[in-house]
Design brief:
Elements: E1 21-26, H1 32-40, E2 44-49, H2 52-61, E3 66-70, H3 71-79, E4 85-93, E5 95-100, E6 114-117, H4 123-134, E7 144-147, H5 150-159, E8 164-168, H6 171-175, E9 181-186, H7 187-195, E10 204-208, H8 210-215, H9 217-236, H10 238-245, H11 253-261, E11 264-268, H12 270-283
Parallel strand pairs: 1-2, 1-3, 6-7
Antiparallel strand pairs: 3-10, 4-10, 4-11, 5-8, 5-9
Helix pairs in contact: 1-9, 1-10, 4-7, 9-10
Length: 301
């Protein structure tokens, strides 16, 4: 497959844009297709961020046109009255159960254990509660959550103080290979087993403000098209994609490659996206109500 950026060597751009397009995306393996997509768009400025609160603030101020972040971040912003619309989703798996001392082959083995998750009510906790209860166990009784930021959990894992931690990529790649640490279960696979899905569930999404989407539908369509093509390219030509984006990351090449190999991409927009999001929240027992009718950007047919 032709690289999304290859034909840009001789052309100014594949997709001309009349105005500057400012994109903020997380500095993780989930953003590899976004980097490639941004390079296809003329006048697109991409910033990889590490501070979510700062990114949210710049987005809501109107200094950022497109914010790439976790689905739950956009849902929380919308729930709190912030002007935000979801324009696409493209990551459906990147979290893993990482254990110390022994390999775990089933969530049922966690009975009587503590599992470290980032914070109470986090998407990781919501999914873990759903999956654990599907095993006939009670969350908080049979399996006890311990709330701890990823950075702290990683240190406790390395020390052997934390026996089970849920981590997203690229954190998994960074701890893999250290003494007595095992990448035990893929939550993407566990979700699919319990729900009959084959594509996981929407986790990382693309957001914009409603006032901006109303005036920039062509730009959104161009971005979504470029992102969809980039996802396909990353899936078909991962080594070539890594070569193209390596300079954007501080991660060693082998760690970034590992993180990419365990990041699951699945692009959705429009009604397919809306259906997937609504189904996900319905499945975990937290259905979105009618106030979310305007949460989704869907191009008029």
């Amino acid at each position: 497959m032709v690289s999304p950026t290859e034909e840009n060597d001789n052309l100014v751009s594949d997709v001309p844009l009349d105005e500057q397009l400012v994109i903020y995306a997380p500095a993780s393996s989930s953003s590899i297709p976004v980097i490639l997509a941004a390079r296809k768009l003329e006048n697109a400025e991409l910033q990889l961020y590490t501070n979510q609160s700062q990114a949210n603030t710049l987005f809501l101020r109107g200094e950022v046109d497109i914010l790439v972040t976790g689905l739950s971040v956009g849902v929380d912003l919308y729930s709190n009255g912030a002007p935000v619309q979801m324009i696409s989703s493209y990551v459906s798996g990147l979290s893993y159960l990482v254990t110390y001392g022994k390999q775990v082959t089933s969530l049922s083995e966690l009975k009587g254990e503590s599992v470290y998750v980032p914070f109470e009510g986090s998407p990781i906790e919501q999914v873990m509660q759903f999956l654990v209860e599907k095993q006939g166990l009670n969350w908080k009784t049979d399996v006890k959550p311990v709330y701890s930021p990823f950075e702290s959990s990683i240190e406790l894992l390395k020390q052997g103080t934390a026996a089970a931690v849920i981590l997203p990529e690229p954190n998994v790649a960074l701890v893999e290979g250290q003494p007595n640490i095992y990448v035990s279960l893929d939550l993407f696979d566990e979700w699919n087993k319990e729900t009959g899905s084959t594509q996981g569930y929407p986790q990382v999404a693309v957001f914009a403000r409603p006032d901006w989407t109303a005036a920039n539908s062509e730009m959104i369509n161009a971005f979504n098209q470029a992102l969809s093509e980039a996802v396909e390219y990353v899936q078909q030509e991962p080594e070539a994609a890594l070569t193209e984006v390596q300079s954007n990351y501080k991660l060693p090449a082998e760690k970034l490659a590992k993180a990419l190999s365990r990041t699951r991409y699945f692009f959705m927009s429009g009604e397919q996206m809306q259906s997937a999001v609504e189904n996900y929240y319905q499945t975990i027992g937290k259905p979105l109500d009618e106030t979310f009718a305007d949460f989704y950007f869907i191009t008029a047919q």
